[in-house]
Amino acid sequence: MSSGAAAGRTAALAGGQEPRTLTAAYERCRRLHRRHGRSYYLATLLLPAWKRRHVHALYAFSRYADELVDDPDPRLGVEGRAAALRAFGERFFAGLRGEPCDDPVLPAVLHTVRAFDLDPADARRFLDAMATDLVVDRYQTYDDLLGYMEGSAAAVGIMLTSILEPAEEARGREHARQLGFAFQMTNFIRDVGEDLARGRVYLPVADLARFGVRREDLAAATAAPAVRELLAFEVERARAHYRAAEPGIELLAPSSRPCVRTASALYGGILDEVERAGYQVLGRRVRVPRRRRLGVAGRNLVAARRAALGERRVSVPAPGG
Description:
single chain; mainly alpha; Farnesyl Diphosphate Synthase; 68% helix; globular
């Protein structure tokens, strides 16, 4: 796929190319977030508006790359998808170097990266992980999978950390890393069937062997007892990452805590739904009911408003004081 065709694919995902302004780029990021990341988007609404648009931008960056890798167009093949992803990355890094950026959403991403002095190496690690999905279809051990998730999940969480204003940057980054692992493991558990349809199994080969699960068992419409035991094991592994991430919420600025607390509860709630469904996730996608999602967000809304108001009530030193 040529760079022009890749840009066209990006434009199609964004819902059009005009107008090409920074405000429009941020709006496209917001719409993409709302369309594809319902739980994340709902949680983001609890942030102050000035933080919100930057989170939308980073979500759009990661979503676009993921969509390019998983493009269902059979005419593309692995090489076409790899070329599209490579072109997207080239436009991003060229924009960081100050070159004109002919892309419907990247101007917002570039603006966010510059505004918070984010490390481009984290973006590179993420894009490299996305490229891995085109050539790797399994991971032998959990350590191998963690290596992949360092780029595919932790890198994005680390990029978000600066926007959320942790009191201690180093500790905040580690907790964000753990939350990234938790979120991605939740995705892997929920999407076992979908991932297999794309030719990938993220649950480690060693874990499948431990529970006597064959790859073809994951293609069944109904999860057999061994598969249910495997998924229960992975659910507890994901919850360990949520627990490791939880202390980091209190390190964030008060106006960021309700958002992250909500996102963690909603995504962790997917694991509850997996259990409630008896681990029958191979033929369908479990979801957190809308009433529960709104209830969790609502319980954090008062804290979000109080924190945002508190941040607006700042004293100004007298001249010469």
